[in-house]
Amino acid sequence: MQYSMNDGTQNGNCNWSYGLIVPNIPGVTDGGCDFYKPSQNLVNAFRTDKNGHPLFDAFNAQDVDVKRDYTDPRLYLTVGMPGMPYEFNKNYMMDKSIAWSRSNGLYGYYVTLKHNVDPDCEYLIKGSWWGSPMNRIVLRYADVLLMRAEALVQLNDGRLGEAVNLVNELRNRARKSTRMIADYEAEYGVHFNVQPYNGSYTQSQVLEIVKFERRVELAMESERFFDLVRWGEAEQTLNQYYAAEADNCNIYTSASFTKNKNEYLPIPFAQLSASNGHYIQNCGNW
C-alpha cells in the first residue's frame, strides 16, 4: 500500500496508522504511544546454536543474552532493545529508562523496528501524532516462499528437499543482509550466526523448520496468530506463552485462550440488535 507526503494535500497521504507504534524517544517525542511491542518470547526465538540453527524446543528455556549467545541477525532488524541504536541511528541509544519505553515495568523494554523510521528522517511529519510515507506491505516474497515450502511439506510427495531449499534462500539472504548492522558485533559485542540447513530431514522435521522460519522471518508482521490457528496450535502455544510471559508482563496473569472460541471475534452488540434475531453470537457468551 503506497503512502506519500508533500503531495499537495494538507498533511500528506501518510501512513498515520503506524503513529501509535512510535516509542518514547528522549528529546524527540512527547511520550510516544509505543504500542505493538515485541515480547521476550519472540526475542528468545532468535537465539541460535553453534551451527546457526534455531533452538527449536529450548529457545525459551532462558532469556537470550546477546553478548553471550549466538543470535540470528534478523533480531537486530526487527527489535529495538536497550544498549542498541534506535532505527540504526547512534544519536538515539536505547536504555531501560521510562524515557524510552512506555510503562516498561509492565510491557518491557523492547520496541518494534519494522514499523518505524529513523527519527531524523526528513520525510516524517512530527507532532502529537507522527506520520511517515512508510509503505504497508501486504504480501512479501518471503511469505510466498514459505507458503510454497509449507505446501510441499504437507504434500509429502518427495520434494522435502525443495522445501528446505526455499527456507535456505531466506536464511542465506539473512546471513548477507547485515549492512545496517555491520558494526554491531564489534561495537556491541553481539554474535551473528544464521546458517542454512544441509542435512537429511523427515517430514515432521522439515515442517518444524518451516514453521520456525515463518516466526523469525515474518516477526511483527501480524502473521503469527493466523499461522497458529491454521496449524491447530493456537490453544497450546498461546496458553503456554501466557503462563511463561506472565513473569515478564503481569497483564498475562489471567489470560487464557479457549479453543473453538478465541479463533474468532464476537459480533458487535449493535449488529446483533439490528439483525432482529437473525444473527447468533459467535461461540456463546463473551
From TrEMBL:
It holds the Pfam family SusD_RagB. Keywords: Cell outer membrane, Membrane, Signal. Residues 3-284 form the RagB/SusD domain. The keyword Nucleus does not apply. GO terms for cellular component: cell outer membrane. It is found in: Cell outer membrane. The keyword Ligase does not apply. Coiled coil: none annotated. InterPro entries: SusD_RagB_dom, TPR-like_helical_dom_sf. Its main location: membrane. This is SusD family protein. It comes from gut metagenome.
